[in-house]
């Protein structure tokens, strides 16, 4: 059997890598232990509703994201979010208030008090952190922008992105661009202005101004397309138990859903599964200590409730992306997306789709409740916040037991471990949402970077082989 590059895990990281490496002429085999590709990318169509059970959209923050979509031939199916999605609501005093997006809007916004706005004037004059210890996001924001900014901008934003808690997330590892702004420019405000010019040079787009997209039939079009492109190079319902290095060959020991075992020879192995699952795979007959440690990376549970309503059951104009909820407002849901306002084709005529997120680090116990209980608490909150009345016409509940890795204070230890393991076991690579950002876009970029390294090493090996043959 000729050796291939084995990719463990068929989420966006694994799919990107399999596609890219195959395109570069490297033989690949993608092993996925589920019966479908996509990982958390999972769209479901029923009764005229298009429900996203995991991520709802992708931000076009890097040209690598745009290129991937073009190269897999999905450009024509791509749909950008409606202009109105730029409006994000944050709850203040139990009601949604638009998050201001320009300095004049900020000055008149009721989201922040006069004192909180005044406090921002101080920001450019506050000294940069001397890194005496690693700061949490909360410590960083209170120091630079004040408590109210933490409560009404950062806390709800972090609940929306990480389902996480700014008190425990590391600013350095979870928000490296924010951290770098202070380290490089000494101020967030100054850095925001100067950084914009540098991003333009690198063709990068800041998250707040990046365009948001999905596809006509939802994000699931990515795994569907990549599965077609990979053909027999994908094996589903296969789990990897062990990998062993024999000379310059890796032997990958797998077991399928019927208990059948096989050993696949490989030139290398790229692990893109959930990082807390890595300790199920023996490497050269043992589980390295640093992998045992990785089990402690917290992934809070999240429940996603996709709800359909008749349009006349919702009072709010739903003219935006959705509503994020600060912890201090004491609701039971983390936020709600106006999914059918963002993208066409998400709900039947005269109906709307709302996607509600529950649990996360803030209230993990809520995510674990029954569908009935989660629905009850969601309907109560939605009634107060956006005036939802009556029973939904559609309900779909997805429970993600380990939703998103939290880059908490100290996360650098894990990042070092990924590098160290790659050095210790040449030919073993890591890519995924645990390495340099949790968004779909960050995960694609990380996977592309790791692929570049694999391609380089592969090229070098081929050159050496052909030189040997010529001698
Ligand atoms: C509810 C939710 C909402 C989100 N919303 C957004 C959003 O709107 N926008 C955004 O940009 N990001 C969002 N994210 C984050 C983003 O979607 C994920 O971080 C990213 O898609 C993760 O991709 P991945 O390939 O690293 O991991 P995963 O998608 O988790 O894929 C890993 C794959 O590996 C497989 N696997 C694991 N172990 C093995 C093994 N031993 N053998 C074989 N296969 C294995 C798993 O079955 C899985 O398919 C959201 C995440 C969640 C959970």
How do the strands and helices of this protein lay out in sequence?
Layout: E1 4-8, H1 12-23, E2 28-31, E3 43-46, E4 49-52, E5 58-59, H2 63-71, E6 78-80, E7 88-92, E8 95-98, H3 103-108, H4 114-120, H5 137-144, H6 147-161, H7 171-174, H8 176-185, H9 188-202, E9 212-215, H10 221-230, E10 234-235, E11 238-246, E12 249-256, E13 261-271, E14 282-283, H11 289-294, E15 302-310, E16 322-324, E17 335-337, H12 339-342, E18 351-359, H13 364-367, H14 371-386, E19 394-400, H15 412-424, E20 428-430, H16 440-470
Parallel strand pairs: 1-2, 1-13, 2-10, 7-16, 11-14, 13-20
Antiparallel strand pairs: 3-4, 5-9, 6-9, 7-8, 11-12, 12-13, 15-18, 15-19, 16-17, 17-18
Helix pairs in contact: 1-10, 1-16, 5-6, 8-9
Question: How would you sum up this structure in a few lines?
Answer:
The protein has helices spanning 12-23, 63-71, 103-108, 114-120, 137-144, 147-161, 171-174, 176-185, 188-202, 221-230, 289-294, 339-342, 364-367, 371-386, 412-424, 440-470, and strands at 4-8, 28-31, 43-46, 49-52, 58-59, 78-80, 88-92, 95-98, 212-215, 234-235, 238-246, 249-256, 261-271, 282-283, 302-310, 322-324, 335-337, 351-359, 394-400, 428-430. By secondary structure, it is an alpha/beta fold. Strands 1, 2, 10, 11, 12, 13, 14 and 20 form an eight-stranded mixed beta sheet that branches.
Task: Give an overview in words.
- With 471 residues, this protein is α/β, with parallel strands linked by helices.
- The chain has three domains: 4-39 and 220-297 and 408-470, FAD/NAD(P)-binding domain, CATH 3.50.50.60; 43-84 and 300-400, Polyamine Oxidase, Chain A, domain 2; 112-210, protoporphyrinogen ix oxidase, domain 3.
- The protein is 36% helix and 21% strand.
- The chain is built from 16 helices and 20 strands.
- It has helices at residues 12-23, 63-71, 103-108, 114-120, 137-144, 147-161, 171-174, 176-185, 188-202, 221-230, 289-294, 339-342, 364-367, 371-386, 412-424, 440-470; strands at 4-8, 28-31, 43-46, 49-52, 58-59, 78-80, 88-92, 95-98, 212-215, 234-235, 238-246, 249-256, 261-271, 282-283, 302-310, 322-324, 335-337, 351-359, 394-400, 428-430.
- Strands 1, 2, 10, 11, 12, 13, 14 and 20 form an eight-stranded mixed β-sheet that branches. Strands 8-7-16-17-18-15-19 form a seven-stranded mixed β-sheet.
- The longest helix is centred in the last third of the chain and has 31 residues, at 440-470.
- The chain is globular, with a radius of gyration of 23 Å.
- The mean pLDDT is 94.
- Flavin-adenine dinucleotide (FAD) binds next to helix 1, strand 11, strand 15 and helix 16.
